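User: Design a sequence. Structure:
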């Protein structure tokens, strides 16, 4: 049964909207095309790189620090997300979106030219800073360009674009390393990015929200400060072998705590904060962002550690890594598409709770792997019935439901002027948790391997110790899904339905400029 709409939800129901003309519908399709390819490019990059991580580690002769090729990207994108989101609220959403794309393309070009792991991490970080502005600003552009009932399908389409990239990314990655160098996994972003920039520039108006307030420069400095000091500490422990008791690590962690406290204090008091923490006072925002934080660890870390486990621990090829990622990725696409088809009829909680329950149960099947566990087992022709791949299917499907449901819940709970910041806050939690999660789990895996391999004298014993350390990592990811499942019980509300009207000027009331002066979505206090 659907969750009833609360009194606060009813009070914030959307205002009537004007019917959309064929021209406006065509313009909306063009917007989706441009944004689709931008998100496709960003998602493909992350998954192509994950597929070829073992190849990069071997070519650059640095295995221990290779996870920071992923987490370095996530750290910089985490810092960029609130910056781009706030800029999109106080200036042209289109221009901010294009600026993020441009930075991403430049970072991609230099990442492909990297000669060592340090250079690659630096250029991936530049790439990540641009990538951090793509998704939240894209969702904000959709939120102000579609009425609520159409917006649900549009966001499901964009979520599916990430899924298409998930399917294409591993395939492209394995193909690239089979015919040329891994550097082309970065160069391939250039044509995709330039095409997306051209479509968005031609099809989208400036999209100015009319939000008041300036840019929170102290907030930007503070969020950059505490995220950077925390990640530097994690990198030094993992890559350089510093002990947690090292005075330098203690100083970095102490600085993180102090700067973080100052950041929270400032953001709760400044009139126009960079990271709108006050939004977390709303129940739907607190619940959705809690879900996002813990599933963000799973989204980022599972693919990374699964790739390393299959490629390095078990010694399989990039093609096998690709196929294993498919078991997880394709169900995400299906789950997101399914949510777009039914979410207009049910509450957010009715969708997200069962999805995360399914994912939680499935995740625990990854915690007891052994050297004899096959990658996959098929019966009756092509029906998966065992192996590592089997639990990845329901795990991905459930996360796909949760991803679409929480994204739509967050942007529907925000007013038009603050939707960029609201979606940015949600993406901030996802990216931050992913960056911290990968780094912390990499440190834990190395420490746990050291414990389990103590006294190991044979290659089989060493491999079993390595597998045991990865089992513990997967257990940590299963616990994250369980916590997200608990958070989902506090998720309230459902998709609002706009009422058609013939009142003139409805599009202008949205505060839009250019061709996309279309019917507005809900304005919520």
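Assistant: Done.
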């Amino acid at each position: 049964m659907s969750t009833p709409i609360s009194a606060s939800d009813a009070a914030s129901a959307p205002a009537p909207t004007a019917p959309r003309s064929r021209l406006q519908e065509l313009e909306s399709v063009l917007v989706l095309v441009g944004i689709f390819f931008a998100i496709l490019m960003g998602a493909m990059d992350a998954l192509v790189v994950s597929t070829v991580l073992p190849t990069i580690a071997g070519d650059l002769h640095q295995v221990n620090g290779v996870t920071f090729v992923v987490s370095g990207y996530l750290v910089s994108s985490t810092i960029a997300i609130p910056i781009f989101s706030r800029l999109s609220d106080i200036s042209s959403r289109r221009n901010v979106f294009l600026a993020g794309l441009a930075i991403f393309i430049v970072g991609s070009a230099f990442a492909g030219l990297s000669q060592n792991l340090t250079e690659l991490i630096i250029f991936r970080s530049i790439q990540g800073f641009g990538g951090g502005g793509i998704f939240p600003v894209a969702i904000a552009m959709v939120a102000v360009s579609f009425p609520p009932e159409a917006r649900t399908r549009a966001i499901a389409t964009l979520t599916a674009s990430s899924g298409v990239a998930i399917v294409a990314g591993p395939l492209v990655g394995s193909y690239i390393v089979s015919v040329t160098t891994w550097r082309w996994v970065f160069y391939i972003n250039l044509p995709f990015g330039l095409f997306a920039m051209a479509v968005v520039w031609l099809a989208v108006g400036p999209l100015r929200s009319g939000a008041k307030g300036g840019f929170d420069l102290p907030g930007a400095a503070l969020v950059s400060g505490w995220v950077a000091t925390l990640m530097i500490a994690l990198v030094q422990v993992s890559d350089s072998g510093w002990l947690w008791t090292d005075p330098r690590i203690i100083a970095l962690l102490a600085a993180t705590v102090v700067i973080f406290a100052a950041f929270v204090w400032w953001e709760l008091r400044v009139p126009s904060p960079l990271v709108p923490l006050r939004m977390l006072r709303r129940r739907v925002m607190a619940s959705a962002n809690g879900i996002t934080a813990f599933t963000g660890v799973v989204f980022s870390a599972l693919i990374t550690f699964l790739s390393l486990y299959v490629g390095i621990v078990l010694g399989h090829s990039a093609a096998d890594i690709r196929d294993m990622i498919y078991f997880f990725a394709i169900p995400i696409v299906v789950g997101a598409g399914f949510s777009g088809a039914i979410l207009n009829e049910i509450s957010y909680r009715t969708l997200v709770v069962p999805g995360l329950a399914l994912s939680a149960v499935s995740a625990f099947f990854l915690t007891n792997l052994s050297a004899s566990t096959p990658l996959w087992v098929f019966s009756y022709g092509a029906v998966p019935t065992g192996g590592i791949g089997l639990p990845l299917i329901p795990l991905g499907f459930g996360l796909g439901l949760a991803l679409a449901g929480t994204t739509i819940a967050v942007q529907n709970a925000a007013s038009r002027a603050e939707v960029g910041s609201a979606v940015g806050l949600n993406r901030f939690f996802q990216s931050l948790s992913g960056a911290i999660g990968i780094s912390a789990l990499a440190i834990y895996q190395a420490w746990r391997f050291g414990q389990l391999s103590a006294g190991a004298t044979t290659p089989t014993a060493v491999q079993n110790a390595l597998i045991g350390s990865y089992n513990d990592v997967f257990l940590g990811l299963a616990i994250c899904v369980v916590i997200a499942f608990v958070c989902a019980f506090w998720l309230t509300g459902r998709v609002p339905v706009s009422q058609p009207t013939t009142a003139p000027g409805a599009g202008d009331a949205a505060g839009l400029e250019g061709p996309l002066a279309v019917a507005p979505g809900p304005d919520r206090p």
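Residues 1-17, 499-525 have pLDDT under 50 and may be disordered. The chain has one domain: 20-216+270-516.
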